[in-house]
Amino acid sequence: EKGAYRHFMLKEIHEQPRALTDTWQGRLSDNNVLASSIGPEAEALLARVEAVHIVACGTSSHAGMVARYWIEAEARLPCNVELASEYRYRDPVVPRNCLFVTLSQSGETADTLAALRYAKSLGEGAGYLATLAICNKPETSLTRESDLIMMTRAGPEIGVASTKAFTTQLMCLRMLTAMIGRGPDRAERVVGDIRGVGSAVERVLELDSAISHLAEHFVDKQHALFLGRGPMYPIAMEGALKLKEISYLHAEAYAAGELKHGPLALVDEDMPVVAVAPNNEWLEKVKSNLQEVRARGGKLYVFADENSGLETEPGITVLDMPHVPDTVAPIAYTIPLQLLAYHVAVAKGTDVDQPRNLAKSVTVE
Ligand code: F6R
């Protein structure tokens, strides 16, 4: 039931503080993430992990791409992320003691399932250490056929556009990073950050009405660009996918540093450019990328940390985000992009919960 909400998508966006909190419940101690919470054998198994392969489709693959930044920078393990439809046809090399991770809301996505079956077919020796499914629906093909399961606990997701399933996947991957990492000092801080996510997302949701006004600037446009750097690059990809999917606007994401290698040629006043700019090590670089856009007459819409120093002026509209710790910023910065896509779709009058040509669960290849 939609309750007071006009669409399931909006309801599901607003359920995220609760969903994210449910996802970590019972999986944390005071100073660490509990590997044992995903099964009695998980602790010993995860302690042996020396590499990670993540395979998924669509929005779920974007969560994997964020995790790659986390797993390599924090757990210091090599991590490869691939679209399921590509992975299974390319004869991948499997490193020693590699964990194979699938991400899926439905647990029935044909390409992801086929990739899991392929990974398992490699057998002992040439194959993977173990398979882990991070899944939202219980009792699915993916969960039945994997060695380990971590449920995302977002609850049923009805809107075709994935929202709370995505952010809870990020939460699971945040916890997985700590489980396979070897640095207890860092884990303690991460646990605090994880516990604070629900209230951080509550505060971000307060931007809802400001974003609905922003949406008016997109309704009559044909195209939009999304920019981010580091772990925010896949978040920009997710923002672009949401906009394409439900408001039928052509949107593309670029790593902000890549602009000058081609897409800058597209920038003019009819091309809105959306950027995500948390206060992290990339902020100064992102700011200079934004100047490149402004200098070409592009219209910028920036979701920036309240302490970023960025301010609204001609050509640039800045929406202040509450400060959130770096470790969970990708979760928080997804929210305004979901809201933007939602409000643009509503303003355009498209079918938000059932976009044309799409199905909630893609069970064909
Ligand atoms: C986008 C969306 C799709 C799914 C993709 C994978 O909003 O919902 O891109 O993310 O079809 O689906 P799951 O996660 O069920 O495997």
TrEMBL record:
Ranges of residues in domain SIS: 42-186, 214-355
Top EC class for this record: transferase
EC number: 2.6.1.16
This protein's record includes keyword Ligase: no
GO CC terms, sorted: cytosol
GO molecular function: carbohydrate derivative binding; glutamine-fructose-6-phosphate transaminase (isomerizing) activity
UniProt-listed GO biological process terms: carbohydrate metabolic process; fructose 6-phosphate metabolic process; protein N-linked glycosylation; UDP-N-acetylglucosamine metabolic process
Signal peptide interval: none
Residues passing through the membrane, by range: none
Catalytic residues as annotated in Swiss-Prot or TrEMBL: K360
Keywords: Aminotransferase, Cytoplasm, Glutamine amidotransferase, Repeat, Transferase
Subcellular location: Cytoplasm
Reactions mediated catalytically: D-fructose 6-phosphate + L-glutamine = D-glucosamine 6-phosphate + L-glutamate
Function, as annotated: Catalyzes the first step in hexosamine metabolism, converting fructose-6P into glucosamine-6P using glutamine as a nitrogen source.
Subunit structure: Homodimer.
Protein name (record): Glutamine--fructose-6-phosphate aminotransferase [isomerizing]
Phylogenetic placement of the source organism: Bacteria, Pseudomonadati, Pseudomonadota, Gammaproteobacteria, Salinisphaerales
Protein encoded by which gene: glmS
Section covered of the full-length record: 244 to 608 of 608
